[in-house]
């Protein structure tokens, strides 16, 4: 299917297989950077736009995050050298715009700007662009189970264009799990076409999961991805181990700023 205009993949949150994406912090070629590199080179998109989460949807999770400015800086360090990949602070912009008519600090604390709200703003500002989403497999499951606010709107605002990212380690660990995921993708394509009044293809979402697979939503299995995760990064205080999981610039930044396990006791108390 040929899409109209330019197509940009939105790598929102930058946290594969997580229901709480926040780029906290972004990982290197075995993780987030590897996904962005694949998306930029697969021939499906004109641009890959990395959008770190500004404020976690759940207040209880916010205390576990590095500051937004730190996370944005680490994203720039991680992705800036990749061709056709950009880092955007649009989620912060969308949040501040939503705050303009709210005078009460209490009400601002309650404000939630979700992915559908973000997509609404993006489509308003760039009406000639077709957007897509790149999500981890667990995140996609949550989306299709309607655990997100305005779940169906999120799917329809990108015309069903969702790349569901799967790590190599997930391919053989649980064959039944993979079959279940493929079926969810097929159903998402089928139901999405029905909502949009488009003709359905019974084979939507089926195939070998590579870049030639047809269907607005597809399973993308990337061989270079490892078991690296942001949570593993956050708990190590070993600089050598850290450099295996994030880029060298990000490792230096984490150590110099005293982030995560590199925070001293005084910083932790503050």
Describe it:
Helices cover 46% and strands 13% of the residues. The chain is an alpha/beta fold. The chain has a six-stranded parallel β-sheet, with helices on both faces. The longest helix is centred in the last third of the chain and has 22 residues. The protein starts with 5 loop residues before the first strand and ends with a helix.
Task: Please give the count of helices.
Answer: 14
**Structural class determined from secondary elements:** alpha/beta
Order of helices and strands: EHEHHEHHHEHHEHHEHHHH
Helix content: 40-55%
Report strand order across the widest sheet. 3-2-1-4-5-6
How many E-type strands? 6
Name the shape in a single word.
globular
Radius of gyration: 19 Å
Average pLDDT metric: 82
Describe how the helices and strands are arranged:
Blueprint: E1 6-12, H1 32-41, E2 47-51, H2 59-62, H3 68-79, E3 85-87, H4 90-99, H5 105-110, H6 115-125, E4 129-136, H7 137-144, H8 151-157, E5 162-167, H9 169-173, H10 175-196, E6 217-222, H11 230-235, H12 239-245, H13 248-257, H14 265-269
Parallel strand pairs: 1-2, 1-4, 2-3, 4-5, 5-6
Helix pairs in contact: 6-8
Condensed summary:
The protein contains 14 helices and six strands. It is an alpha/beta fold. It has a six-stranded parallel beta sheet, with helices on both faces.
List keywords for this structure.
alpha/beta; 6-stranded parallel sheet; 270 residues; 13% strand
């Amino acid at each position: 299917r040929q899409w109209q205009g330019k197509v940009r993949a939105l790598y929102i949150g930058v946290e594969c297989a997580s229901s709480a994406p926040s780029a906290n912090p972004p990982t290197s070629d075995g993780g987030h950077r590897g996904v962005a590199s694949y998306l930029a080179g697969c021939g499906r998109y004109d641009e890959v736009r990395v959008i770190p989460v500004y404020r976690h949807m759940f207040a209880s999770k916010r205390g576990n995050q590095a500051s937004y400015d730190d996370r944005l800086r680490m994203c720039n360090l991680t992705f800036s050298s990749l061709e056709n990949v950009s880092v955007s602070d649009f989620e912060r912009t969308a949040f501040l715009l939503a705050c303009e008519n709210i005078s009460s600090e209490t009400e601002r604390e309650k404000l939630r700007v979700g992915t559908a709200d973000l997509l609404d703003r993006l489509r308003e500002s760039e009406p000639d662009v077709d957007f897509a989403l790149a999500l981890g497999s667990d995140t996609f499951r949550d989306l299709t189970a309607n655990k997100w606010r305005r779940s169906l709107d999120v799917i329809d605002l990108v015309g069903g264009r969702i790349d569901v990212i799967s790590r190599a380690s997930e391919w053989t660990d649980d064959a039944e799990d993979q079959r279940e995921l493929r079926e969810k993708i097929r159903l998402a394509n089928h139901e999405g076409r029905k909502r949009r009044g488009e003709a359905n293809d019974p084979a939507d979402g089926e195939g070998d999961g590579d870049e030639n697979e047809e269907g607005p939503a597809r399973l993308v299995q990337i061989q270079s991805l490892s078991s690296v995760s942001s949570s593993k990064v956050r708990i190590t205080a070993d600089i050598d181990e850290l450099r295996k999981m994030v880029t060298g610039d990000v490792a230096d930044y984490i150590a110099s700023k005293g982030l995560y396990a590199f925070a001293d006791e005084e910083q932790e108390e503050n």
